[in-house]
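Please review this one.

:::
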Amino acid sequence: MKKQVLDCVVVGGGPAGARAIYELSKISTNIALIDYRETLGDKLCTGIIGTECVEKYGIDNNIIYQEADSADIINPAKDIFHLKSKKPKAYIIDRVQYVQNLINKAKNNNAKIICKYRVTGIDQRENKVAITYSNKKEEKVIYSKSIILASGLENKLINDFNIAPLKKENILNGSQLKIKSKYPNVISNTKVFIGSNYGFQGFGWIVPTSNDELLIGVLARDKSKKIITEFISLVTKTYNIIINESDKKNIKSWGIPIKPLEKTYDNRLLVVGDAAGLVKPITGGGIYYSQISAEIAVKTIKHALEINNFNCEVMATYQQKWEKQIGDEITRSNKLRDTLFGFEDNMLNHLTKFTLSNKLISKILLSKSSSFDNHFQSFVNFINNEKVNNLFSQSKSNSIKTLIPNLKKKFLDNLRN
């Protein structure tokens, strides 16, 4: 009996996988998604997406917790700087429901969704790939002409292909705790904490989601679980939030890539989202790039199906397209991360007081020239702004006066290395 061969199988049901299966469902019903979770999309994430992502891909209003039109920046000296824009720069959303909505749309288009099974192996054959997936009770095999790998950073499936994994130095460590607050109005907007207390090149955050829920987290190059424990103590004292010792057992940690894989394709394979290392290096946010890469991947698969050719030359067009669209932003934001996160605490205190206390600079930071989704371009717009340069050059502090020229030089040096 001839075995059925699907057009494409998506491995992983996060934002990238959900977008991929939905876009695939528009061109084929002979497709499937496999994920080990029962509730797709249930993964650690702050659930913050920029307005550009919303404008490009849309979002149901009922999954928006709140518009992010303000934030507090807390420097090492514990000075608080309140920033508020006229229009939202981002949205805090229900990530799980965002994924579920895409999955449901794919189901309505007759896509097959296989939950509670983990893909354990992929075997490339002459005219198809064999995908082995299993749970505690059984093991199955499904055949497909192509695969979109969207299984996140912690996957070993790329070892079945001619793709080198990410190096450890290109992975940040994140830890986050979700709690129910007895005082929902104590924290009404996102708070970002900067300085050495949050690890090497790290920062902390508090993000209110629903009326009584808070996300408390850190992202750093160091071991984040130790850092978040100290951060939680600071949060409880500062905001009078009660966090029981038993709550701390629910701290979750995960790795976040800040550089893409050198190769995100192989014969019959495309790698998208976190699995490909396609994440915003400054903040570690991955939803926007997951949507972009998944959309490009499906267009590549569509072309491969039309010409019935899934070799490396055809699949390589996927990487060429995502590199053209977001490659420069990722590369330069990585270099920018090394530049911006290189300040010592004293300089951070000095710099935040000078910039965030200045109404004109704050206005420029919150203007249309600054984007939540394009950090590098926002940085370039800021340091090249004539009014900003005049304000810095007129400062009585030599370290502030020379900051922008020094930043430009340091960044260019990092870009060359």
